[in-house]
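Our platform keeps sequence and structure together, in a single record for each protein. This encoding replaces a full spatial description with a residue-level series of whole-number codes. We quote a single record here, exactly as it is kept in our systems:
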Amino acid sequence: MMSELSGYDYELPPHLIAQTPVRSRSDARLLVVDRACNSLSHKHIRDLPELLQADDCLVINNTRVIPARLVGLRTQTGGQWEGLFLEADENGLWRLMGKTRGKLTVGETIRLLDAAGQEDVELELAARQADGTCIMRPKTSEETFALLDRVGRVPLPPYIRKGRMVEADREKYQTVYAENPGAIAAPTAGLHFTEGLLQQIEEDGVSIARLTLHVGLGTFRPISADSLDAHPMHSEWGSVGRECIDAIDSSRLRGGRAVAVGTTSVRLLETAAAGGLLEPFSGDTDLFIRPPYEFRAVDALLTNFHLPRTTLLVLVYTFGGRELIRRAYEQAIREEYRFNSYGDAMLIQ
């Protein structure tokens, strides 16, 4: 088994990291990887209706990205503070990552700034966690997601404008079918779909099934261990219901394929199939898909181009085959495909 990280490394020219999406989502380029023919071809996302088969089931992740990036001022000193909301508990306490000059003390407060830079609600530091995160108490009875919609910013990954959003990102860094709030990163393969394209795909006989996996901060974490076996895989919460399972099973019985949109959909479906059969699942998954993994639930994958030495790239290599995917990435770089969250995509079938 290949476990050395050098096998998942490559040189990515910085200018290929997309900083903005294409004007029309479905105009993104699509590199089609045919495993049976060991071939590569160049298309666009808008060509998906002719690439999918009539009895396929397209599986999409309907998580909704929350405006989790926070900016504020220390109430006592006026010093700048930045934070990233991670989750809220049943008591309304927030767990987040925070950064400021010096160190906050328990009981100290932060005055959050809204999108216009105006002072808004206060957060009080309630406790520090062993993992470096903070527990903070919003000094308001306002519902968490409503409050974040007002004071939060889009949590762009650091390779897009150093994480600094523009107003257009509120729409662009969200799938058109986003429904269940909870992600702090977008399921980026889904960013390519328009409502019109989805409608056309359904009219052509492809069923669309929905699941939810809240993408977490760990998705961007590079593998720093010397081997894949030593990497501590991050955990994310997901749910796949009976309706989704039945749609996939029905398609497969008719000879169709389960076509996962994004590595997040793959990870959750394979978690749900860990017992050998696809079953409903709800909970945390820390599944790390790496060689010699045997896929049980997914037949084809639509995914963006990923950074070197990441678990996302390892998953794609495992699904598509080491040599074929390496060749696909080499060709994508030569042809100047756009990489990462706002970039182009590949369909591995």
Summary: The mean pLDDT is 94.
